[in-house]
Amino acid sequence: MVPVDYPAQERNRNTISSTPATTYSWLPACINRKLLPFKLHYFLFIAGEAGVGPYIAVVGRRNGIGPATMAVIFAIMPLTAVVFKPVCGFIIDRTRNVTAVILVLQVLCTIFYGIAFFCPSAISDGATYHGHLSCPPGAFDVTGTSGSERCHSSGSGSLFCVLSTEKRLWEGVSVSITMDGNIVLANGSEPCKDLRNNESLANDFLVVPGDMKCSCDAALYHNPNFWIYAVSAILGFALAAALNNVGDAAVSNALGSDIEVFGRQRLFGTLSYGMTSPLIGYLVDVASSENFTDYRPCFYVFASAMLLDMILILSVPRMRVAEVSVNFFKDIAQLLSSPEILLFTFFTFLAGSLMGFLNAFETWFLEDLGTPTYLIGLTKTIQCFGAEPVLFFLSTYILRKIGYFYSYSVAFVLFACKAIGYSFLQDVWGSLAVNIVGGAIFPMVYATMAVFAKKKARPGTAASMVCILGANYDGVGSAAGSLVGGLSVDKIGASLTFRYIGFSSVAAALLSALCYLLLRCTADHEYDITPEKPEPSTISGSTCGPPRYSPKLEHETLVESSSKL
């Protein structure tokens, strides 16, 4: 993080102190030394998120939690974050102590994620069925049973099982029990498809011996391990989401009038996510055995990244918010009564809904197409190293040229291209081409949201404004998108759902542009315009480009010209 609370003798509203820059004097002159801690923070924090975000669901599945129950847990997660984010923003705006809030969130997040990843399985006392898997139709013929028969004898028709054969193990299999006591796989096409590929068979009938260890939801709710995992995962997710928004608020506050370069700081998180993801996958493969997938290396990476980030934050002067709103709640109420801010918040909700659906069902859809796991990982790498960092870097210029609402329109169009492209996908390799465009969605939305919150907030309410928008994006919006998208996938299938959501995204793009035009026509002043050019600086410009105006120093913050990286 950037130094914010320097002694009074080192602060000057008209000049830029060179003291912090000497710390990184070995760097090229075109690198903005005072913004380097921002980049390091995002690099470490997002690298840690790569270890827990994609894997927290499969940890629950391995522990015996069925798909329906996991859906409820993942619906509660973003709704819990909705509560945490504004509370954290309020605490920051009232206490002015950003460093303390970030450190507390990091410690708590690490603790709860650690509990979730190390929680024992909830199906340790479940029933184990021995028999043969027949493909097709995906039926498991039971020849014997061992262990507890609580789920079977209770007449429950819904089980969650771990299916193991000689060559493969599936940790998430939903099944139902027939009247004669045999088991039918609800998602039997996936195990059967994998087995046929293994056996080099295309359409032939296949019978494979195996075991199925099951637990039912009725028994699951009485198992303390289930509640330990569920509560820890929910709190870990909510704290991580709040930490992400608080970090954005701190960076936005410290950048001051140079907020347009926010995307350049955030792109370093994208790069770290792309670099860390393959490493995490490799560590999981090394730590796992044939019959057990060990996800603990994911948490080790997360904890290590959090520790390094905490050391970074403690190594710089304490961050504070310099301005405090005298009438905090009145200022927030006036902000939320603005037509411009209300409309922007609504479109932020729509963007969060679309991204929430994509995050929940993209991998699901690709697996339905038979996409290999390494290829799914490669799509993430293309997103992280393709358009995403480029758009984060160019977000400064895009926002200056077209403004906030048009930037959202572009993001909606990009999402439509990805969703509609997925809906017509036949060749799994085509997903790589689709994700070249898809990688541009997140930076367009995220940078626009952060810059808008900072520019439109009243003094002393910036952190709350960032957190309110964040709660609509990956809180309420994400939950709504996951829920509606999940119901649609269940009714009409993933392919048609992607197509219809793509068409809806086109409509959202047109609506966003139309609302902006209406605001400009009906308001007394122009909305969504580039702020006035700051006063010329007495400091020379960057050696990497022509001199430019230097931003005024706001919120007791020291930043350099954004012509540097």
Describe the structure.
By secondary structure, the protein is of the alpha+beta class. The chain folds into three domains: 251 residues, MFS general substrate transporter like domains (Growth Hormone, Chain: A); 96 residues; 201 residues, Growth Hormone, Chain: A, CATH 1.20.1250.20. 61% of the residues lie in helices and 8% in strands. Strands 1-2-5-4-3-6 form a six-stranded antiparallel β-barrel. Strand 1 and strand 2 form a beta hairpin. Helix 1 runs parallel beside helix 9. The longest helix is centred in the last third of the chain and has 37 residues. The radius of gyration is 26 Å and the shape is globular.
Question: In terms of topology, how is this protein built?
Answer:
Layout: H1 36-52, H2 56-62, H3 67-95, H4 98-118, E1 127-135, E2 139-147, H5 150-153, E3 159-165, E4 169-177, E5 183-185, H6 189-198, E6 206-216, H7 217-220, H8 224-255, H9 262-287, H10 296-315, H11 328-336, H12 339-368, H13 373-385, H14 387-423, H15 430-438, H16 441-456, H17 462-492, H18 494-522
Antiparallel strand pairs: 1-2, 1-6, 2-5, 3-4, 3-6, 4-5
Helix pairs in contact: 1-8, 1-9, 1-10, 3-8, 3-17, 4-8, 4-10, 8-17, 9-10, 9-13, 9-14, 9-16, 12-14, 12-16, 12-17, 12-18, 13-14, 13-15, 14-15, 14-16, 14-18, 16-17, 17-18
